[in-house]
Amino acid sequence: MKFLLVFDFDHTIIDENSDTWIVKCAPERKLPNGLRNSYQPGHWTEYMGRVFVYLGDNGVKEDEMKRTMTTIPFTAGMIDLLGFIGENKELFDCIIVSDSNTVFIDWILKAADVHKVFDEVFTNPAAFSSTGYLTVQHFHAHHCAKCPKNLCKRKVLKEFLDKQLERGVSYTRIVYIGDGGNDLCPVMFLKENDIAMPRQGYTLEKKIAQLSQSLSPVQCSVLVWSSAIDIMSYLKLLIKQ
């Protein structure tokens, strides 16, 4: 009996968007209008690439970025939840699928000493160039019309499950914890026995509700959370069953 926990990162594990938080490093803590208005829907990664160039051009160094990023608050109860999962790792495999980047997630998880809870992190690869600029790339290519160009979370989840099956690992139940519009695609992939946990008041909860109104509800069960303590209470029930 093993459960797979799939976490989004921004507004789920942390209570902010890591990509917009980095703007605190910019001169006057804001971006020029031209740069801010250059975002095109579905092309967030390219936009963040331009943001990182702007920060680099303004002399913002790696250590300053790291200091800023590690001040992001975790969602209420999240550190307790991750501690609970860590104590029960024989029952839970735990992955992150996020549209953030490897550098930010690594910094934040390690600063809070919760990185060992996660078996794998699937996110956009990032690194500092020889000139000290942060660069970010697309996670993968895909053919899903519903998802942003750089990341289809359903594809990530499906490939992870296929790889685990090859290793002889299958899961009693998948629990998907997220908040955003790009979490709907993987949630629609979940089966009857699985559970989607959308964050209360966020886009994912609204989109799931719209689907049930249009009589094409998701197959899995849905349990809304507002604090990570709600998630922990559910997991405690799950392992008692």
From TrEMBL:
The keyword Hydrolase applies. The active site is at 8 (nucleophile), 10 (proton donor). Keywords: Hydrolase, Magnesium, Metal-binding. Transmembrane segments: none annotated. GO terms for molecular function: metal ion binding; phosphatase activity. Mg(2+) binds at residues 8, 10, 179. The keyword Membrane does not apply. Substrate binds at residues 19, 99. Its cofactor is Mg(2+). Belongs to the HAD-like hydrolase superfamily. PHOSPHO family. This is PHOP2 phosphatase. The gene is Phospho2.
